[in-house]
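Quick log. Single chain, no ligands specified.
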Amino acid sequence: DVIRFAEERGMAKRFESISLGQGQGPKATKLIEQAQASGNWVLLSNCHLMESWMTSLEAIVEQLDPGAMSASFRLWLTSMPSQTFPIQVLQNGVKMTNEAPKGLRANMVGSYHMDPIAS
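-> predicted structure:
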C-alpha cells in the first residue's frame, strides 16, 4: 500500500492523499502543483469515479517537466478498470496491479488479512 511505502521511505509527513469524486478536481490539481515544487508525494484515489476530470489529469501529466520539479515528487494514482482513463497517462507511468487470489480459501484469507482502511 502506498501509505505504508511512504512511511518506509520517510515521506509520511510529505504525503497528501485525496479520494476523487464530485468537486475534487480543483483540489487535486492544486495538490499536484504544490507537490511538484516541494517534492511531496500525492495519491489520487478512485480515478475511475471522476471520468469528467480525466482529460484534465492527462493535460497535467503531459505538462510535467522533470527539470522544473523536485526530484522527490511522486504522483500516485489508483483506479478500477475504466474506458475513460487516459492512455497517455498509462503509457508514461509505472503500473502495478492487484489481482484476487485464486480459489475461495485464498480469497477469504486475503480478505481477512486486508486492511479495510487502506483499500
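The longest helix spans residues 25-38.
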